[in-house]
Amino acid sequence: MPRKRALDIAIAAGAVILLAALFIMRASLERGQTSVPSTYDTGQHGYAAVYALLARERVTVDRFEEPVTHIGDYRGTLVIAGDYHLLMAAPGKRQRDALETWVRGGGTLALLGIVPFWMRDAVGVPATTRVTSANAASGCGLALRRLMVAGTFADGFGGGCTGDRAVLLRAGNRAVAVAYRRGRGTVIFSPTTTILDNEHLAQRDNARFAYAILSRSPVEFEERTYGHAAGSGFWQVLPLPMRVAIIIACTGLLVGIAGANLPFAPPLAAPDGDERDSGEYIASLSRMLQRGGAQRAIVRRLCGFVETALGARAHFDTQARDLLERARALRSLSRPGSQDVIAAGRLFARVRKDFPW
User: Fold this and answer.
1) Within 13 A of 119's CA, how many CA atoms are on the CB side?
2) For the domain that residue 172 is a member of, what is the CATH number?
């Protein structure tokens, strides 16, 4: 009984250790995964929650998976979230000019994250200075809403509300989110992405802030910089050798179908109705042996079998003696022909049939 109890304790301890190891491995795996401000990302830094929030509140929301040069006549809000992701979305002058033209024509651009200093003038982003705060209060641009938004605020800028500029969030005496006019359009800028990420959006004021700045027009989140590109179908992503192989296979299939259904030659004549017997097979085999120069060897082997089978019977059986003499005569031939091979084969078959061992 004590031995069984010790075994049960050991099994239970092993199970506990295994569960603890699995828990530690899962935690380390989750820590190793990179979370980015993409609406497909459900990690702590992802934007899946804000996308779901806007959809639930019946705001027209979608994902922009094309180059920014295709922004065209869209007159909603384009959200580009991520540190330095404006550089990835508009790396060249042509893309930046297209984005600037779109904003000045009446679009709303929401930039969340650090903007490279050499691109600030392209969209009118103010220079930033260092701040340290985990909370930001609503500014004069949201005077009717008293919010305390959580996030990681490491950069801010000065200035207050003017006719074409509104401070949305303020950490101490520094603004950390601002909206300003750009032609007939608007730019919303914050140097941090954390105010709308999954980790902080669970707080009520963060959700209210997201709805306040993004609910006034249809919203599209830029996703191409995170690898979700539209316009690339199955054929485009295949490597060139695979495309060539598919084309060759399809061509062969089409040729096979055409050959099976379209006549290109006169009908094939039906074979002769006479059934072949074993004699034709033996004759064909004889000719093959003759071509290979093996007719003498096969005659000697067949006749040797006949001599072995009939040697004892030949003393008292006249038929066996006659067959034995024929076998010896065939075996003595120096250059047997095809007819001799056939004769030896028939003699061998008769002896096996009529004189079983």
Assistant:
1) 21
2) 3.40.50
